[in-house]
Design goal:
This is Endonuclease domain-containing protein. The protein is of the alpha/beta class. The protein is 43% helix and 16% strand. The mean pLDDT is 88.
């Protein structure tokens, strides 16, 4: 209401609009349009801020399917009734305005670093940078906690999706050097292991015409002497040990090497 009054709308007009159903009274000092975002209305009702993975999803950053709301309490609000949501009490890295209902991207990412698995946090941070919502250099200048600093250090440019970020981190953990987003035969490939082993990571958009183009590109890569392995979202998230084992077997057979570099018994 303070914003409306500052804009010249009288309290009488606001009361009349509520009575006519043109506005909904959310709580003391707050009104909303009937078609207002339900999540923001609920945040106003409970005096919290939408943040962490909840706000990340609203910004279309990469996250897993956690439907539990994540909110932050305003400093000094004393809010305890969060309706089953995960409440973050950590002091924000960027101060919040008293009437703020959605968190800043800096606070969202800082909380994700503390709240989510490491791989998921890096994926969300890279997603935010790739969407132009924040620069890596800007995050580096903030007073971040150690966990967030570790996430920042693990970031890499040019990741096309959260799945690719997760795969890259897992290869790094295995000390396998991979090149990401390499241009071969008119298209980018997600990962090139060694000289000849290509790993393609399919997200939800790999359907229809996109799927046909991917298959055609696989054939072209095969004719050039590359070995292509293609994995899905489920295989990365839920069946990674099997994928990892297949990649390791392929490397043991020398499929990642150029023909002239393979062990003698494989020539």
């Amino acid at each position: 209401m303070r914003v409306l009054i500052a804009a010249g709308v009288s309290r009488h007009a606001i009361t009349a609009a509520v009575g006519a159903g043109e506005l909904i009274r959310v709580r003391k000092g707050w009104v909303a349009l009937p078609e207002a975002d339900p999540m923001m209305v609920e945040a106003a009702r409970r005096s919290v801020v939408l943040t962490c993975v909840t706000q990340a999803r609203r910004l279309e950053l990469w996250t897993r399917c956690d439907q539990t709301p994540h909110v932050a309490a305003h400093v000094g609000s004393g809010s305890r009734n969060a309706g089953g949501a995960v409440v973050h009490w950590t002091a924000p890295v960027v101060a919040r305005a008293p009437d703020q209902l959605t968190d800043s991207i800096e606070n969202v990412l800082a909380l994700i670093a503390e709240c989510q698995p490491f791989e998921d946090a890096v994926a969300a941070w890279e997603s935010a940078v790739n969407k132009g919502l924040i620069a890596r250099s800007a995050m580096s200048r903030l007073k971040l906690r150690p966990r967030a600093r570790t996430v920042l250090a693990a970031m890499a440019p040019f990741a096309d999706s959260g799945l690719e970020t997760i795969v890259r981190l897992r290869f790094h953990k295995l000390r396998i050097d991979v090149a990401a987003q390499i241009w071969i035969e008119g298209h980018h490939v997600d990962f090139l292991i060694g000289d000849r082993l290509v790993l393609q990571v399919d997200g939800g958009h790999h359907v229809g015409k996109q799927r046909d183009e991917d298959i055609e590109h696989d054939r072209a890569l095969t004719l050039l002497g590359y070995h292509v392995m293609r994995v899905s979202y489920v295989q990365v998230i839920e069946e990674w040990p099997a994928v990892q084992a297949q990649v390791m077997r392929a490397m043991a057979q020398g499929l990642h090497l150029a023909v002239w570099n393979r062990p003698a018994h494989q020539r």
